Amino acid sequence: MTISPIIAMTLGTAGAIALAKLVSREWRRVNETLHPNASVPVTEKAARDALPTLRRDPQTGIYRPD
Fold it and tell me: For the chain, where are the E strands, in sequence order?
C-alpha cells in the first residue's frame, strides 16, 4: 500500500506549518526570557509625531523643518 503523492504533500505541508509555529513560539519565549526589559517597538504614528513638519520654502523650493 502506497500513499498518494497529493496526500503525502498535504501531510508534509501541514507538518512543516506546525513545526514553524512551534519554533516561532519557542523563539519568542526564549527571547522574552533572555531580554525581559526589551523596549516595546514604537508605533508608526508615535514615530511620525516625533519628526518635525516640513514646509516648502516658496523662494527656493526646498523643504525645511518648521
Answer: 54-56, 63-65
- Is 0.85 surpassed by the pTM of this model? no
Per-residue pLDDT of the chain (66 residues; tens, 9 = 90+): 788 999 999 999 999 999 999 999 999 999 989 988 776 665 666 777 778 888 999 999 999 987
The secondary structure of the chain in percent helix, strand, coil, rounded to multiples of 5, reads 55, 10, 35
Can you tell me the distance from the alpha carbon of 27 to that of 33, in angstroms, rounded to the nearest whole number? 10
Beta-bridge partner residues of 65: 54
SS3 of 63, please? Answer: strand
In order of 47, 48, 59, 60, the CA distances from 52 in angstroms are: 11, 8, 20, 19
Helices and strands in the chain: count of H runs, count of E runs? 2, 2
